[in-house]
């Protein structure tokens, strides 16, 4: 999903007919596959959702909705599954609980929560400007 996401996010890659065709095939395979065993951003279900929710793949939107619903229902019933051996919980971003939490927020508010995998800021906060919870000394004029 990571390589496919990089292709989907690159206008130059999408302009290449071979890469665009590969992306369509790969996204279709991932859309039809069973949910993954872990929920992580790195190589789990949330990484697949990031790809299926990308604007370059509008035909994948129904699959994104279905798989997001499955993930949210599973998160409501059981603990999240980290991308570690034995799904041992840890606080990491790419394979751990912080990434899963971010991914769940993004699933609920995709237009307001920026993509960690694509290094995008949240909507409504200009780049280079601290968010509302910032405690920077500069923000407080000290």
Automatic annotation (TrEMBL):
Pfam families: LANC_like. GO terms for biological process: carbohydrate metabolic process; peptide modification. This is Type 2 lantipeptide synthetase LanM. It comes from Streptomyces halstedii.
